[in-house]
Write a structure and sequence with these properties.
There is one protein chain. This protein has 431 residues and is an alpha+beta fold. It has three domains: 92 residues, Beta Barrel (OB fold (Dihydrolipoamide Acetyltransferase, E2P)); 82 residues, E3-binding domain (Dihydrolipoamide Transferase, Irregular); 220 residues, Chloramphenicol acetyltransferase-like domain (Chloramphenicol Acetyltransferase). The strands form six sheets. Strands 11, 14, 17, 18, 19, 20 and 21 form a seven-stranded mixed β-sheet that branches. Helix 6 packs across helix 7 and helix 6 crosses helix 8. It is elongated. 30% of the residues are buried.
Length: 431
């Protein structure tokens, strides 16, 4: 008989094959899972509608199939008798306490000192079958289903199997450590290409700082569910205030740039939107809302990007911020900044205005949840109150961690940040 894909539900007529659990010559029982199919955002196990020997498999992982399409052909009748025990067991009511051993790995009632698969090499179930709810629970607990032998027919993994596995891990962790029986999986060796075969090249060693930057950026990129929101900020008033008070600051030995204005405006906005001044604690499954505002400033140096942190920005005057910013930037460029001066930031600002460029997508500086990127300001015609005016507009890019921050919150943050720039008080600039 042919086993075909049934209709999975209203509007669900097709899907993509994730795993195929049988091959030609295998014995299958009625209702045994023979493949997994991904439809929309769910992964469902597809059971066999008959029992017997698999004669032909028509699908493979990655195929898109539709309802009514053949999955496998099985021989029934006399051939099905080849595995009477398996068929009978699948058809009979299952006692609550009885476990059926799957083909992929036998399940044995384990004592407290039973071995537990703890390294990625120790695979006990090459084709794990589990309901979407069980897969979700495993992901939340960081459990690899390849290490769990399912107790249900066809090797299906249940919630109870996941629970028992976690309990065994806890018991194993409480015992004295033993030498690992298998090495960690080897990282794929990088391929080295001889680019000189096509023309002259110059080689430059990767500096330790560049290695750190690469590692941290890769960690952020692979960890964070990042969204970047773009807008244009009106810097007209800030530019006017800077010109008006620049000489007063110069007399005090401090250069007044637009960055201290940005620091102050961002700090005020963070006080209204504390979720952007937070971090995600994945161990405790908590969001840490920080009551202090320590802003990191990305500084471009000859060796690479460095991010010194200015602490308690919300409590400092514009003059103090300008002075401290100048000091930290100089120390960063001279490589005299300490590690402690680059720790503890709650939010980062990357201002490329002095260099050029417009919108870009800044990468979040973990463990923070957001970063503000600013491009070069330019005079542009803007409609205000029904009239066209020339304003100093600056490209803005706000990248945020969507695991913590929602899009609506990001939009409200942007609106309030825009107001903070446009309504910057003159009293805040006076020395």
């Amino acid at each position: 008989m042919d086993v075909k894909l049934p209709k999975l539900g209203e509007g669900a007529d097709s899907g993509v094959v994730v795993n195929v659990f049988v091959k030609e010559g295998d014995t299958v029982a009625k209702d045994q899972a023979i493949m997994e199919l991904e439809n929309e955002k769910a992964v469902a196990a597809i059971p066999s509608t008959g029992a017997g020997i698999v004669e032909k498999v028509y699908v493979k992982a990655g195929d898109r199939i539709s309802a009514g399409q053949k999955i496998i052909t099985i021989a029934d009748g006399a051939n099905a008798a080849a595995a009477p025990a398996l068929v009978a067991t699948a058809a009979a009511p299952k006692p609550a306490a009885k476990k059926i051993a799957p083909k992929v790995a036998p399940v044995v009632e384990e004592a407290d000192d039973a071995p537990v698969a703890e390294s990625p090499d120790e695979i006990v179930n090459e084709n794990p079958v589990a309901a979407p709810s069980v897969r979700k629970a495993a992901r939340e607990f960081g459990i690899d289903l390849l290490k769990i032998a399912g107790s249900e027919s066809g090797g299906r993994i249940t919630g109870e199997d996941v629970k028992n596995y976690i309990q065994r891990l806890i018991r194993a962790a409480s015992r004295p450590a033993v030498a690992a029986t298998a090495a960690a999986p080897a990282k794929a060796a990088p391929v080295q290409i001889d680019f000189s075969q096509w023309g002259p090249v110059t080689k430059k060693s990767v500096t330790p700082l560049r290695k750190v930057i690469a590692r941290r950026m890769s960690e952020s990129w692979n960890t964070v569910a990042r969204v970047t929101q773009f807008d244009d900020l009106d810097f007209t008033k800030l530019g006017e205030l800077r010109k008006k008070f620049a000489a007063d600051y110069e007399k005090k030995g401090v250069k007044l740039t637009l960055t201290p204005f940005v620091l102050k405006a961002v700090a005020d906005t963070l006080k209204k939107h504390s979720i952007f001044n937070s971090s995600l604690d994945e161990v405790a499954n908590e969001i840490i809302l920080k009551e202090y505002v320590h802003l990191g400033i990305a500084v471009d140096t000859d060796q690479g990007l460095m991010v010194p942190v200015i602490r308690d920005v919300d409590k400092k005057s514009l003059f103090d911020l300008a002075k401290e910013l100048e000091l930290l930037a100089a120390k960063a460029r001279d490589r005299k900044i300490s590690a402690d001066e680059m720790k503890g930031g709650t939010f980062t600002i990357s201002n490329q205005g002095a260099i050029g460029g417009a919108h870009f997508t800044p990468i979040i500086n973990l463990p923070e949840v957001a970063i503000l990127g600013l491009g070069r300001g330019a005079l542009k015609p803007v409609v205000r109150d029904g009239k066209v005016e020339v304003r100093l507009m600056t490209p803005m890019a706000l990248s945020y961690d969507h695991r913590v921050v929602d899009g609506g919150s990001a939009a409200r943050f942007t609106v309030d940040l825009l107001k903070a720039f446009e309504n910057f008080g003159e009293d805040a600039v006076k020395i």
